[in-house]
Amino acid sequence: xxxxxxxxxxxxxxxxxxxxxxxxxxxxxxxxxxxxxxxxxxxxxxxxxxxxxxxxxxxxxxxxxxxxxxxxxxxxxxxxxxxxxxxxxxxxxxxxxxxxxxxxxxxxxxxxxxxxxxxxxxxxxxxxxxxxxxxxxxxxxxxxxxxxxxxxxxxxxxxxxxxxxxxxxxxxxxxxxxxxxxxxxxxxxxxxxxxxxxxxxxxxxxxxxxxxxxxxxxxxxxxxxxxxxxxxxxxxxxxxxxxxxxxxxxxxxxxxxxxxxxxxxxxxxxxxxxxxxxxxxxxxxxxxxxxxxxxxxxxxxxxxxxxxxxxxxxxxxxxxxxxxxxxxxxxxxxxxxxxxxxxxxxxxxxxxxxxxxxxxxxxxxxxxxxxxxxxxxxxxxxxxxxxxxxxxxxxxxxxxxxxxxxxxxxxxxxxxxxxxxxxxxxxxxxxxxxxxxxxxxxxxxxxxxxxxxxxxxxxxxxxxxxxxxxxxxxxxxxxxxxxxxxxxxxxxxxxxxxxxxxxxxxxxxxxxxxxxxxxxxxxxxxxxxxxxxxxxxxxxxxx
Length: 543
Prior knowledge:
Elements: E1 8-15, E2 18-20, E3 27-29, H1 31-38, E4 45-48, H2 55-62, E5 68-72, H3 76-84, E6 90-93, H4 94-100, E7 109-114, H5 117-120, H6 125-134, E8 142-146, H7 157-167, E9 173-177, H8 183-191, E10 194-198, H9 200-203, H10 209-214, E11 226-231, E12 237-243, H11 245-254, E13 258-261, E14 265-268, E15 277-284, E16 291-297, H12 316-329, H13 336-342, H14 344-360, H15 364-385, H16 389-400, H17 429-433, E17 444-445, E18 456-460, E19 464-466, E20 470-472, E21 475-477, H18 484-491, H19 499-516, H20 518-529
Helix pairs in contact: 6-7, 12-15, 14-15, 19-20
C-alpha cells in the first residue's frame, strides 16, 4: 500500500522568477532545473515567496508536471485557477483556508500555520497550538506547521509527539516545514506519523536528497534490503527486485533503474542487455519497509526472457497497444491495421461508424462489443500519431484535478452552422431560432371546441421574431395530461368537404414539384409557410 502522502516533500521557493534560498534570497537555479532535480520524490511543493508575483512561472511549471502550490492569501478566483491548472493541492494560510474551504474541495486544501518566533517563545506554545488544532473544522484534512528559517531552532520532536499530533483527528495529516532537518530527524518524525517539507538543506546541497529518501526506511531482513516493486508509467508491474541504501542513492544520482542484486551487488538495469530504465519517481509505502520505482522501460522489456514484465505478457488495452505499435514498425502482408495506418479517410470513417453503432447499442453484450471496436480504432489513431496510453491517462488525470466543470453540452456540428450567404443573420443561427422557455404557469386552459373536457395544462413559449412573419408563439401541451378527445382536437387538420376537394388543392402542387424540383419546393415553402430558404435540406439546428 503506497500512501497518497509523501514522507519527504521537497519545496521549491520562488523569488523574482527563479528558485532561491528562503532565508537569504540567494538564487540557486532555474525553476525547471530544480524541479527536475527533486521530481524523483512523489510529491513536490512550490512556494511563491512574493505572494503572487511569480504566478506566471508557477502556471508555466504546472503545464509540465503536477505539484502542490503555496497560495498564501490568494483570492478565491486565483485558488480556483491554480487547482484548475493542475495543482495537486493548494497550501493556504490558515485564516484564508478557513475562509475558502466552503468553496473548494477540502481534500485539495492544506492549512498552513506559521510558527513564528513570538509563538515559539511562549512557555506553553505546544499546548496552545494543540488546542487550536483540535478546534479546526472537520473539513480540514491536512495541516502544515511552518517554522522560521533559524539555524538555532531545535526540532520539537517531544512537543509534536506528546501534544500536537494527538490533538489532530486520526484522518488529518500533519506535515512540518522545518528549515534544516537532519536525516535522523526525518526517521524520528516518521515514527510519530509526521511528514516533513524541506527546501534550503536540499537546495544548498547540505543534505543529499537520496539520504533523506532512505532515512525513514526500515527492513526486517537480515541483509537490510528493501523489496522494490518496479512499474511502468501506467502503474503496471514489471517485476520485483531489492534495493539497498546504496542502490537508492545511485538510482537518484543517475536517474536510472539501479537495484541491489543479492548475488552480484549493485545492478544497473540494462547495462548488459541495453534495456535501460529511466527513473521517474520513487514512492515509499505506508509502513516504510518497501518501495515502488516508476520507470520508463526501453528495449525488449524488464524480464530476462525479453518480455516487458516478469509476470507474463500484457492483456487488454496494454496488449492491444503493444500489437499496434508493432504493426506500425512492421506489419505482416495483408494487415488491416497497416491499411488503417495508410488510409486516413478509412480510419476516420471507421471511427465515426463504430461510435454511431455504440450509441445505438442497448444491451450489455452489444455495448461491450461496440465499445471494444471504438477503442481499437481509437488506439490505431493514437499509435499512428505516436500517442501512448500513458499520454492519454495523463490527460485524464489532469482533467480530474479541475474544479470548474464545463457545461458538457454536445458541440454544434459544421452542418448546423448558419448559411454563409445569409448576410442578414447576426450571431449564430441557433441563437436566432431557438425559443426561450419560461416556467410553466399554474393556469389551465380548456382546448377550443372541447369545453366539456377537463382543462389541460399549457406552458407558453416566449414569442420570437421571424423576418417577414412578425412574432410567432407556440403553445406546448403535456401529453400525459391530455385526454383522447384533446389529442384528436390538437391533431385535427382543417376541414374539407371531400377527398376530391383536397386532391384538387394538392394536384397542382405535385405537378409543380415534378416539373421544377427543388426550385418549386422553395417557392411553395415561401408561399404557404412564409419561409425563405436557400436549400430544401434543413440542418438539425434549423429544425
